[in-house]
Every structure is written in structure tokens, then in C-alpha cells.
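Section 3.1: Structural characterization of target chains.
Under the original work plan, the team committed to producing a structural model for every single-chain target entering the pipeline before any wet-lab resources were allocated. The record below documents one such target. The sequence was received from the expression subgroup and is listed exactly as submitted; it comprises 354 residues.
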Amino acid sequence: MTKSFFLTKWLLAGMRWLYETIMSTTGMQASYAIVLTIFLFTLGVRCLTVFGDIRSRKSSMQMQEIQPDLDKLMKKYQNDPKRMNQERSKLMKEKGVSTMSGCLPLLIMMPLLFMFINAFRAWSNEQMLSLLLTMDKDPQAGIALFNQYKFLWILNIWRPDNLTSSAVLTGEQFWRTFAQTSSTTVDKFIFYTEHQAALDELLLRMGFFVKDAAGALSIAEDNTVFLTAYETIMGPCIDAYKGYVNGYAILPILAGGTSFLLSWVSMQQQNKGKKQEETSNTANQAANMGKSMMYIMPAMSVFFCWQYDATFSIYWIVSNLIATGINVILNKKLPAIVERDKKKREAKLIKESN
């Protein structure tokens, strides 16, 4: 198993523990406990990464400050790339600017993003197995469990909030989700290990698994038997919302809107820090790239949140709002901090020169 899988499993285990703690102490509806879990976990992750955000923003502001000097070096040594890199490194060291600081949040947040995508997908699949197991044992209890997944306008928080998804996985969707390889994939889930005997017996009886002469289980090559059994067991839930879509695409739109807001707030400090007379080709290129990202990121947010479960959309929106709040605070506080650090460096240089 890969390192990323273990990290995803650790993230999922943490969210499940927090969710179960909230459920046992508050007794609130499952979907609202899930949303509270997402909020608290996202807030915790953002608090851990805020120091990287601060370093990145300080580095960005310092880069803006020395950009005119960098442009002069590029012009002066345009025919000597080696000397230009040496002088550039020397200048950045003197000014206390680190290029790696600007990359740090991206290096942290991108793996976290995919970890959250995989964790929510695994959690959703676990809940589907839980629902299937409950429906087989007690259909009334299964329907009651399914109704716990309703959140505001969304019929099932473990399904995408869009205009095409059904509230419950169809048999074909279940098969595509759990039978992605020729080997057993469900054994990767924490829930599976907790209920392995019951799930093995159920999935074997449904025709999802087949048993060889040695008694080992593997996924069936033909899903015909399974689809019939699945429709029989999950029929009451499927029939209850037949013809309904799971949501109205409100969360993907909110995800796109909050992504735009975050990008806009992030751009404000860059625009504020620029002086017209110091605007260079490099600065203009950076500004144009920033403006492009203001529209690319919201579009990507809508695309991802349209496809993935509503839980991921909620995480994305909460993460955007927290990051926006952090950026607003940094926009107000960081200029004074950067100016203070600049004066300290200048005083140190004067002292060393004397």
C-alpha cells in the first residue's frame, strides 16, 4: 500500500473519531454531525497551515518590493544567465527573500486536497456499505438510517449536490465503485475490517463475491446476479426517491463563489503593494496570471464539487471561507510586519558595514 493511502486512512480515521464523538455526546442528526465534523477538522488543518500562509505572503510582498531591482539585474545580465542567477540570489539573500516560502502552501495544500477527496470518497463508500448491511438486516432501520443523511435541500449528503445524481447509488454505480479491480477493494475500508464477517457473507450471498475451491473470495466476473439482489435489498430506499435528483447544484455554485472571493481577496494585497512607476513586464505577467487564476479556480471548484459528494463540497466551501478570513487579517497586519523586518535588516547591514 502506498504512503498516500496510509495518510488518507489516517485522515479518515481522525474524521470518523470526531464524528462518532459528536454523535455520542450531542445526539444530533447524522448529517449535521458530519457537517460539524468537517468544519472542525478543516479549521484544525487550516490552523496548522496558517504559518506557511504567513511565510508565503511575506515572501510575496518582499518579492514585490525588490521586483524593480530584479528587473534591472535581468536587463543588465541578459547575456550572462549564470551571472544573473548569482546576482539574483545575492540580492534575495540580502533582502531576506525566499522563493521556497512562496511555494510552501501549494506544496502542503495540494496533497491535502487530494487526501481529503480520497478520504471523503472512502467515508462515503463506508456509509454505503453500512446502509446496505442495515437494509439487509432490517429495512425499516435502513430507511431510518438513510433519512439521517438528509441535509437541508440535499437528500443524501454522501452523494453529489447536482442536477443529475440520484439520492442512492444504483446497482451499476455500486458495482463500478466497489469492483474497480480484479481483487477485493472493499477490504481497504475501516468499516469493512470492523464488520468483515457480516459483509463477506452478505456480498457473497448477493453475488458480488464468489468463492473458489480453496474458500478464497474474489469479485465476480458477471454482475447480473448482484444487480438483481441489490435492487431487492435497496429497493425501499431507491423507490422512496425515484425520479428525484439529489440536490440543486447549490453547493458547487457556492464553492465556485467562495473560490472567487478567496482569489479576489488574495489579489488585493498584490494590487495594493504595486506602484505604477515600478510596474515591470514580470510584474504585469504575474498580475495577468493572478487574474486568470481568479476565474480558473472557481471553474475548477464547480467542476470538482459537481462530481464529488456533498461532503467534499462542504469541506471546500468551509476551507475557502476560513482561508479568506485569514487573508483579510494578513492583508491588514502583514505590511507593518514586513516593513519592520525591512528596517531591522537595513539597520543590521549598516551596523555590519561600520
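Residues 3-167+249-353 form one domain.
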